[in-house]
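Q: Given only this backbone (527 positions), what sequence would you predict?
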């Protein structure tokens, strides 16, 4: 009956372990998957924003260059034939369909010729497209149509918006003869957005925004947000010249992954500073990760059931020899110095028994090595911490001597590191000689050592006597392979009493050591 209960418990342990392992693994992999999905999608959105900005810049650069080229035509530089200019303008409009309207004004701002004679004879001298282009080319940000709203064809019925590009036209004598003004229809920008959306067609609810720097208002985006002011971290980052992606909460209270980029111009085209944002709701972005998590949950349940069944089968086969090993292991855990018994019979249990025997031996050896300095074989800082932890429970007084060698660097520099190591080993022997059975001599590192005297009747006096003895011992000559050297020793002394902080006492001894250094070295400071 007891065997049956043990088998049941072991099978349950297998199941629980499998469940916990799968749960932890699912959590780790799930989080990693979410992070990876977030990074991949965020990077894709950032790259899309970059590509869209690049397309905008190249498009505007082309239109900007075309305008500069048109301004060099002889018909415009010698505007003495308005009819010829009118024919030219209409031909240009057919050649460059991105321009919704092309007009040429006289130096005073009156339109001499234009596309389909729209606004011909109208004074546009108060419009920025003329005023800003009297000395140098002008590129105006997106704006609503004012004079052309009712004059240009508008099959879609949507509100018409334009981007202005205009340039002064000078004759051979470098005299202003007019201004070439153009309006780019906003339709081309929507086409750019549509083409970019095609690159992300496999992603749900991706939205594009173009934000003008003038008032941080949306000039291209979802219908309900056009013209509205936007204030997001991504917009701030883009306006500062950064590019990439971020995870943020938008004004609608929802969380989005947002790619961002600022349009910076290209070649001679200086750019309008538009910020391009591409966003996707986090819940949509994480959909693949959620599917992966669900897969792990279902797989985990199946594996837990399989582990429980496997545990029942294996338990009956493994119980007897394992019980014997377990009993000995429990005694080891209780602190007894016992040996894992060898087992002969089942090959796997034989290996387990031999491995545990080796493991116990290795752990004992490793623990000893971990608490000793490899060069001097003195206990190290880990051993010191363990010693302090034990002494806080059973000691009343400790005298802590913190010492540092004077002149060790000169030996290293003169004779080399091998000689320095030989010197440290001899120093360790002399330091070890002043420590009693209940005391501890430690190498902290480099040429620093600590000696702890346990429960001296007069800790301060005993510490000073031991410190002076250390100085005398270390002032004696050291015979190395490369010659005989002499060094000094500075010592700091501090006394710990029960109830105090040993770490503070050690720090105080260290501070007094450096007082000894500053006071001239090769001496003891105890206060």
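A: Predicted residues:
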């Amino acid at each position: 009956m007891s065997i049956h209960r043990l088998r049941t418990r072991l099978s349950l342990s297998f199941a629980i372990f499998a469940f916990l392992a799968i749960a932890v693994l699912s959590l780790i992999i799930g989080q990693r998957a979410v992070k990876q999905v977030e990074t991949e999608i965020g990077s894709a959105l950032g790259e899309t924003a970059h590509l869209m900005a690049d397309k905008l810049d190249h498009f505007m650069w082309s239109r900007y260059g075309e305008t500069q080229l048109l301004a060099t035509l002889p018909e415009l530089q010698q505007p003495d034939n308005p009819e010829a200019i009118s024919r030219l303008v209409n031909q240009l409009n057919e050649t460059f369909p991105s321009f919704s309207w092309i007009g040429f004004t006289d130096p005073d701002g009156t339109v001499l010729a234009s596309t389909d004679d729209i606004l011909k004879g109208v004074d546009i001298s108060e419009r920025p497209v003329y005023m800003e282009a009297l000395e140098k080319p002008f590129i105006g940000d997106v704006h609503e149509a004012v004079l052309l709203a009712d004059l240009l064809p508008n099959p879609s019925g949507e509100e018409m918006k334009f981007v202005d590009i205009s340039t002064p036209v000078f004759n051979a004598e470098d005299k202003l003869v007019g201004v070439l003004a153009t309006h780019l229809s906003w339709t081309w920008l929507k086409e750019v957005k549509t083409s970019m959306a095609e690159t992300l067609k496999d992603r749900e609810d991706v939205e594009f925004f173009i934000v003008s720097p003038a008032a941080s208002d949306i000039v291209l985006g979802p219908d309900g947000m056009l013209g509205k002011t936007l204030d997001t971290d991504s917009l701030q980052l883009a306006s500062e010249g950064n590019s990439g992606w971020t995870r943020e909460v938008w004004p609608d209270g929802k969380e989005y992954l947002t790619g961002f980029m600022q349009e910076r111009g290209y070649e001679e085209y200086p750019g309008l500073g538009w910020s391009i944002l591409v966003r996707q709701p986090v819940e949509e972005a994480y959909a693949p990760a959620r599917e992966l998590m669900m897969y792990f949950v279902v797989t985990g349940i199946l594996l837990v059931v399989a582990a429980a069944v496997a545990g029942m089968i294996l338990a009956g086969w493994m119980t007897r020899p394992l019980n014997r090993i377990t009993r000995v292991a429990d005694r080891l855990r209780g602190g007894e110095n016992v040996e894992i018994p060898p087992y002969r019979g089942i090959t796997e249990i034989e290996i387990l028994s031999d491995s545990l025997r080796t493991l116990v031996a290795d752990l004992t050896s490793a623990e000893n090595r971990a608490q000793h300095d490899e060069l001097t074989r003195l206990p190290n800082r880990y051993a010191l911490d363990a010693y302090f932890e034990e002494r806080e429970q059973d000691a009343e007084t400790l005298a802590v001597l913190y010492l540092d060698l004077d002149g060790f660097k000169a030996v290293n520099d003169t004779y080399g590191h091998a000689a320095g190591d030989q010197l440290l080993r001899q120093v360790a022997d002399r330091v070890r000689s002043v420590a009693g059975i209940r005391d501890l001599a430690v190498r902290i590192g480099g040429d620093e050592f600590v000696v702890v005297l346990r429960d001296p009747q007069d800790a301060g006096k005993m510490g000073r006597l031991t410190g002076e003895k250390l100085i005398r011992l270390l002032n004696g000559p050291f015979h190395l392979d490369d010659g005989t050297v002499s060094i000094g020793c500075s010592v700091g002394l501090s006394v710990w009493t029960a109830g105090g902080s040993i770490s503070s006492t050690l720090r105080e001894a260290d501070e007094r050591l450096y007082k000894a250094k500053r006071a001239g070295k090769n001496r003891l400071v105890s206060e």
